[in-house]
Design brief:
Blueprint: H1 9-31, H2 40-47, E1 52-53, H3 54-61, H4 65-78, E2 81-86, E3 91-96, H5 98-124, H6 129-142, H7 145-157
Antiparallel strand pairs: 1-3, 2-3
Helix pairs in contact: 2-3, 3-4
Length: 161
Amino acid sequence: MAQRAADGLGTQLRRLLELLDGDLETLYREQHAFYVPRYTPVMKALAAGEPKTIKDIASRSSISHSAASQTIAKMVSLGLVELGVEGDRRYRTVHLSPQGRELLPWLERRWRATESAADALDQELSFPLSRLLAEAISSLETTPFKDRIAARDRWQGEDNK
């Protein structure tokens, strides 16, 4: 599907994510029908050392606590990770299950290939997508999009009265 001039920023970003994650999911599912890209931030966090709390995984992965918790619940149901408790039982911890540990070498190869493909994509573009995304995220963390919209709405509202 070609991009149309009228497509807004959100539509373009969803299409980009569809093109990236859709193909990645297809590759994952060819060998492991249960695995989807959404699990990767959790698996990468655990591959770097375990156990981790859900808060640690969310923080390390730049995803919300809620998203991490929901993803981990699904991964528990699939047998990829297991939950435990830390010390005084105040913190639930996440660690790889035997199935998750067995899957890790295959995933690490996929991650290296994905990173290499992303680097190649960056080389094809007039400006590296990875750098642009990092800048956009940083700017939006400084001034949220809702604040930017509200500022423009107030300014344009004067003309529409």
